[in-house]
């Protein structure tokens, strides 16, 4: 219809009307684009909010479950440290069944690097830019980068770990009715006299320290700092801080 009107105006050389028609068309296109942009923007903001809510839920859950592992594994690390001190003759023999269990389990790295599905999904659809807050976006990218590096490190640590009870059956004697190794019997005095055992123990101890200090603890710190960034953006306040 507008085309017929323009032809009419051109025929009558009514240039003012032609200019007005042109302006109407340009304005129409402009407004159309603006409305489309505005809709897209609004859709993005809604999607962002949805992702952040999911992310918040997943991070809170991970912090709570990971905290128990961090505590248990730092206790185990401390027990292995005490065994090391005993083997080096630096402490009296005050080792008990808990130390023996820590020794028997020193090849077990129980928890995988924590996966956060909402971040994986954002990455897979290439929409990390959806997060409009620069600081939060950087924190998410840092967290993800840490996860990639920690996964590679954990793979290395687990690689050729040693099962001490298998390599040293005379020094760690298992009870065949005890599937958790809680009643393993450790010959501490003989361990101290065996350089082969000391070498194998030191290898596992080093791996365990790396697992605890380079993966579990920093992961917990990253989860907590990501959590506070999300709280800030979502303007959430917790009565009790999740730690
Ligand atoms: Zn929160």
Count structural domains.
1
What value does the Rg take, in angstroms? 31 Å
Question: What bound compounds does this protein have?
Answer: zinc ion
Task: Identify the overall geometry.
Answer: rod-shaped
With strands numbered from the N-terminus, the spatial order across the biggest sheet is: 1-2
Structural class: mainly alpha
Approximately what portion of the residues adopt beta-strand conformation?
under 5%
Q: What's the main sheet like?
A: 2 strands, antiparallel
Considering DSSP H and I runs of 4 or more, what fraction of the residues is helical? Answer: over 70%
Number of strands: 2
Mean pLDDT: 89
C-alpha end-to-end distance:
67 Å
| Tally of helical runs | 8
| Helix/strand order, N-terminal first | HHHHHHEEHH
Instruction: Report low-confidence residues grouped into runs of 5 or more.
Output: none
Concise structural overview:
It is built from 8 helices and 2 strands.
Descriptive tags:
72% helix, 243 residues, two-stranded antiparallel sheet, binds zinc ion
Would you kindly provide a written description of the structure presented here, covering whatever features stand out?
With 243 residues, the chain is an all-alpha fold. The chain has one domain (51-234). It has eight helices and two strands. The chain has a two-stranded antiparallel sheet. The termini are far apart. The model has no long low-confidence stretch (mean pLDDT 89). Zinc ion is lined by residues 56, 60, 227, 231, 236, 238.
